[in-house]
Structure prediction request, 133 residues.
Amino acid sequence: MSAASPNKTKILIVEDEADIRELMQELLEIEGYSVDAACDGQDGLDRLRAYADLDMPNLILLDIMMPVKDGFAFRVEQESDPRLAPIPVVVVSADAHVEEKRIRMGARAALRKPVDYDRFLTVLAQETSQSRG
Prediction:
């Protein structure tokens, strides 16, 4: 993991589907974001806990349905850790009830798969500007 430059927004993708994870990462990197990716909720938590305070992501993109640790379990642990709780989350899921689940999880926004990438980039720009402000 390389440290993000002070002015570069860092995003952690927590997504079990490799094709989707890699596509999101590639798109975000093209747009100038610093990106790290995890293959499930436990991997995501492990990565977050390993970051130095100055290298924490500005935003987490979180799938709901994943093996090992799903998005709900991830959020419970994230919110119980004072270092990780302030990081905003955007849920990305194929679930038909993604907006209801976003509210239950306390996430800032929700995107439904298959993702409309123009909307994806718009939501990320809005959420990352809020998290820095």
Helices lie at 18-30, 41-50, 71-80, 98-105, 117-132.
